[in-house]
Amino acid sequence: MTTNLEAVERKLHVDAEQARWEAFAPRYEALGARELTAADVPAWLAEWSDVSAHLMDVGARLSILKDLHTDDQAAQDAYQAFVAGVVPPSERMDQALKEKLLAVPGYVPGPEFALTYRRFRDEAALFREANVDLSVTHEEQKARHSVLTGNQKVTLSGEELTVPQAKMRLDSPDRAAREAAWRALSESNLGLAPGLDAVMLDLIATRRHLAANADQANYRDFRWKQLDRVDYTPADCRAFHGAVRDEVVPVLSGMVGNIARELGLDTVRPWDYNRNNLLDPQGRESLKPFQGGAALEELALKAYEGLDSDLAARFTQMREGGLLDLESRPGKMTHAYCSYFPTSNEPFVLMNVVGTAEDVRVLFHEVGHAFHGFYSGAAQPLVWNRWSPIEFVEIPSMAMEFLTLDHLDHAFTPDELSRYRQKQLEGVIAFLPWAAQMDAFQHWLYAQAPENVSIADLDAKWLELDRTFHPFVDWSGLDEGARAKGWQYYHIFQEPFYYIEYAMCYLAAVGVWRAARTDVAGALTRYKAALELGSSVPVPELYRAAGVDFRFDREHIRGLMGFLRGQLAETATA
To answer: Where is the Peptidase M3A/M3B catalytic domain (predicted)?
Structure first.
């Protein structure tokens, strides 16, 4: 009998010959050699988009395979060979093609391409030949992080667990069991820390070098341009950090304190606080609504069938097409994400499920990303116009966490559904301080930290920020070494400066859900229409299309905190 993993492996298979530069070079060279007039540009762009999609497709499949098999050197080598052998010449050709396009006399892009044309101009100005090979080094350093964390094990009571399996024990109503799991995870993390410290120092040096090559004052400024952040500034981010500190941290502190009092806890220890799943105030076991990836898929399908038939059909396509890999296994990267194959307009979701309600939320989140790929890919022929800027890209995923709340009667009893809904609302409040802390740390690291910054400096800064954004956690009598290593997190290594977007989008997702409380059909129509716009319009226009404002200022945050507190009170009395 064919297993799900076998179906996934077939979907991800890449012939070795198709992963070499020679498979792409003739098409790129033909584009570069062609005479180009303004009238020729649309057809020429379509050809360039096609070969770019093919290259992205191969890269995505190899990347997923190395994440599914962090313990397989052949999978790691295949991806690194692609990164070293295909990405550099493709980046050089893309730069040459951008310059060719920008030099076409008389060409004026239409409205559907104007934004991408502007981005091409800015990307061409940021390009430096020296950064092509340096970017290969950067990817190799990030791969070291993936291998280290993908092979991490946790030993608890003589049992060897994956990280997701160990983290599930943190949700136990038994405080001693939570503490044992926390200590086992901390011991495992601290054992891994020296290796990750070394990777981080290498990454910092490489990232500073990338910035200097591009004539940027620091890596934050370089990344700002690379991520095309034109709608807000570093000062806006600093204001967000302050607003979260003043408007959200007190709400979260009070919420966590109330739970502790109801449980009879005199203090909140590290094993009493999990931002993804706050303790149940009645001391009940955490919700475990399914067992195994197949059961989670069935649970989700029924929810989508209740919400929208087209969403259900697209999820079915993923189930039947080898586009989901949900089980937690040794040697598999512990993070969850959605990838995308542009040639076939197919998304792919990787997870590590262990049977918790948090897994349900994460699946809805990642499949929300998948819907973004489906809808933008169907509406936007050019590959660069698909998906969206990162300030919007989490709205499809986070909104789906909320929009499915009223379609889970089959998965939970009424009491359980009330608990799940409460966890979702609490999760927004608990997430915002974490997001602010992550973003503030990176602003310091890449724009303010000294030239000779050390790991001790990183640890000290993280401790300072954690005491600011999570002051209610009592570490007295504990070695704070584990706390100081909280910066050793996926995005810090793999996606620098990609985190405040989660906060922006969570705020917007709450707005989408608030509108759906009175008009779910209208909210879904706007949701799909915004997804179809892809990356063809600016960020504020995408937000307006979804029915919300692009805001993350103090007043907006204060208003949403009031709405969430009201919803929590309504849930508590339901």
So the answer is: 171-558
